[in-house]
Design a protein that fits this description.
36% of the residues lie in helices and 14% in strands. By secondary structure, the chain is α/β, with parallel strands linked by helices. Among the domains are: 73 residues, no CATH class; 124 residues, Leucine-rich repeat, LRR (right-handed beta-alpha superhelix) (Alpha-Beta Horseshoe). The longest helix is centred in the N-terminal third of the chain and has 13 residues. The chain is flat and about 75 Å long.
C-alpha cells in the first residue's frame, strides 16, 4: 500500500524553522549593510552551513517565496556553496549578486543563471575571471554575448557543460572558443555545449565540431545538417568517403528538420560512438534510411516519430532495427508508427528502462506482428521503470490481450501513464493484478480512460503491494469526485504519503 508519512527528519525540521524565521537572521544586515558597500567578508548567520545545507535552505526559501536580497547575500557570503541555482529567483539576481558569488564562492562548481536577464556583461566577466573551479554554467536566456562570451571561452578552461541557449552569441564568438581549444597551453574540457537558437550558423556549428574533437553533446537545431556537409544529400558514395569522425554521444533533431536517408547512413561513420538518437522532430526519410541505424552498435536511447510518413510501418521500418540492436536499448520512444506491436517491442528490447508508445495520428493504429525470430514469449521486464501508453480518441487497435501482457510483465515499473486507452477495462486490470502487484509503483497517471471504474481502481490504489506517492486522474468518466474524495479520506485517515489529483 502507499507508504505512511514518517516524522520529518531533524535536517528538514531545522531548515524549515530557519526559513520560516529568516527575517530574524537577516534583519540586522538588511537594516545596516544591504546596499551600503561592497564587502569582501561578512561574518553572517549562515557561515557555518556546509554546501548541501546552504543549497537545501536556498531551495526551501525559493519554494516558499521567502528569499529576499539580504537572505541571498548572506547565504552567498557563507562561501560554502559548490552548486548554485539562481534560475528560480532571477528577479533579484543582478551584477551585485554575481559580484558576491565571484568573490565569496571560490569552490563553486555549478552555476545556473538561466533567465537571469539583469546580469550584464560585467557580471559574466567576473564569473569568467574569478571562479576557477567552475565546471557547469547555464546561461540560457541571459544577456551573455560578444566580449563577455569570449571571456568565458578564454578563461573558464575547466568548463565541461556550457549552455548558451537563446543567447546572442555569433560565429565570431565561437571561433574564439575553437582557437582556445586548439592552443597548446590551455585546452578546453568541454563535453557538452548548447548553442540552440543563437546567432550561430551551420558553418559555426561545424567549426565547433571540428575545433573541439572531444565534444560529446552539441545541442543545435540543424546538427545533422552541420555534420553532413555533403552538397548532394542523395549521393551515398561521397558520404562513405567522409574523413571526419566525431565523438558525439547524442544527436537530437529539432524544429521538424528534413533528414534524408543519406544523413542516416552517414551517422554510423561520422559518429560511431553515439548512444542517443532523437528523430521525433525529423522527417524526409523512409524505411530504407532507418535500416542504417542497425550499424549503431552503441545506441542506448532511440526516439522516433513517423507522424508525416505514410511509408514507414512497424514491420518494414522498425522491426529490422529492433531485431538487430533491441537488446542494447535502454530508452525507446515510438510515436505514430502504423502497425506498432507493443508485445513485440518488449520481446525484442528486454533491457529497457523507459518505454513510450504513442499513437496520436488519425489513420495509424497498433498492430500485431506474427512470427518474430527467436520468440520465446514475453518475459518479465525487471529493468523497466517507466512505461507510457498514449492512444488517439476511440482507438481500439491496442488489444486487451496486448495491453494485459505488457502490464503484467512490467513488474518493476515505478512510473505508469495510460492516456486514452479504451481497452484499459476492469477485466484487464483484474487479470493484471493477479500476476503483477506493482510493488515498485510510485507514480500513476490515467487520462481519459473511460472503461475503468472506482471499484477496480481502488484495488490498485490501496493495494498492500505498491508504494504509490502520486496519482493523477483526468477526465475518466466513471471516476467521480465522490470517488476521489473517498480516496482522499482514506489516505488522510491512514496517514498515507499519497498525493491525489482529479479533474
Amino acid at each position: 500500500m502507499p507508504q505512511r508519512k514518517s516524522p520529518g527528519s531533524l535536517h528538514n525540521v531545522c531548515l524549515q524553522f530557519i526559513a520560516k524565521n529568516v527575517t530574524y537572521w537577516t534583519e540586522h544586515y538588511e537594516e545596516y549593510h544591504l546596499g551600503q558597500a561592497v564587502y569582501r567578508f561578512v561574518l553572517g548567520p549562515f557561515n557555518q552551513l556546509n554546501s548541501q545545507l546552504s543549497e537545501d535552505l536556498l531551495a526551501i526559501l525559493v519554494k516558499h517565496q521567502r528569499l529576499s536580497r539580504s537572505a541571498l547575500h548572506l547565504l552567498l557570503y557563507g562561501g560554502a556553496l559548490r552548486q548554485l541555482d539562481l534560475s528560480s529567483c532571477n528577479r533579484i539576481v543582478n551584477d551585485e549578486v554575481i559580484g558576491i558569488v565571484a568573490s565569496s564562492c571560490k569552490m563553486l562548481q555549478a552555476l545556473d543563471l538561466s533567465y537571469c536577464k539583469r546580469v550584464t556583461s560585467a557580471g559574466f566577466v567576473a564569473i569568467a575571471t574569478r571562479l576557477p573551479q567552475l565546471s557547469t554554467l547555464n546561461a540560457t536566456k541571459t544577456n551573455l554575448r560578444g566580449s563577455a562570451a569570449q571571456g568565458i571561452f578564454k578563461h573558464c578552461f575547466g568548463l565541461r557543460d556550457l549552455s548558451l541557449k537563446h543567447c546572442l552569441v555569433s560565429d565570431q564568438d565561437v571561433m574564439v572558443l575553437c582557437q582556445v581549444a586548439s592552443s597548446g597551453h590551455s585546452k578546453t574540457q568541454l563535453k557538452r555545449l548548447d548553442i540552440s537558437y543563437t546567432l550561430i550558423t551551420e558553418k559555426g556549428a561545424r567549426a565547433v565540431l571540428e575545433g573541439i574533437p572531444q565534444l560529446q553533446v552539441l545541442e543545435y537545431p540543424s546538427l545533422l545538417t552541420s555534420l553532413y556537409d555533403n552538397p548532394e544529400p542523395d549521393n551515398a558514395d561521397s558520404v562513405l568517403q567522409h574523413s571526419k569522425c566525431y565523438k558525439l554521444r547524442s544527436i537530437q533533431c529539432q524544429d521538424y528538420m528534413s533528414v534524408s536517408n543519406g544523413m542516416l547512413q552517414a551517422i554510423p561513420d561520422l559518429c560511431p560512438q553515439v548512444t542517443q538518437l532523437d528523430l521525433r522532430f525529423a522527417c524526409g526519410f523512409d524505411s530504407e534510411g532507418l535500416g542504417h541505424l542497425t550499424q549503431l552498435k552503441n545506441l542506448k536511447d532511440l526516439q522516433l516519430c513517423c507522424e508525416e510518413s505514410e511509408d514507414i510501418t512497424f514491420a518494414s521500418g522498425i522491426l529490422p532495427v529492433l531485431l538487430e540492436i533491441g537488446q542494447n536499448l535502454k530508452v525507446l520512444s515510438l510515436q505514430d508508427i502504423d502497425g506498432l506491436d507493443p508485445v513485440a517491442v518488449c520481446q525484442l528490447c528486454p533491457n529497457l528502462r523507459k518505454l513510450f508508445l504513442l499513437m496520436m495520428t488519425e489513420g495509424k493504429v497498433f498492430g500485431s506482428v506474427p512470427g518474430i525470430p527467436n520468440n520465446n514469449g514475453l518475459q518479465a521486464m525487471t529493468g523497466l521503470i517507466q512505461l507510457d501508453f498514449w492512444c488517439q480518441n476511440g482507438d481500439l487497435s491496442l488489444s486487451e490481450e496486448a495491453l494485459g501482457q505488457v502490464l503484467s510483465n512490467s513488474v518493476a515499473v515505478q512510473t505508469l501513464g495510460l492516456i486514452r486507452i479504451d481497452t484499459f477495462t476492469d477485466n484487464v486490470l483484474w487479470d493484471v493484478l493477479k500476476k503483477n502487484n506493482f510493488t515498485n509503483l510510485k507514480q500513476l497517471s490515467i487520462h481519459e480512460c473511460h472503461c475503468i471504474t472506482q471499484e477496480t481502481l481502488s484495488e490498485l490504489l490501496l493495494s498492500s503491494g505498491n508504494q504509490l506517492e502520486f496519482v493523477k486522474l483526468i477526465n475518466c468518466v466513471q471516476i467521480s469526485r465522490r470517488d476521489y474524495e473517498t480516496w482522499e479520506r482514506i489516505a488522510k485517515r491512514e496517514n498515507f504519503n499519497l498525493k491525489l489529483e482529479w479533474t
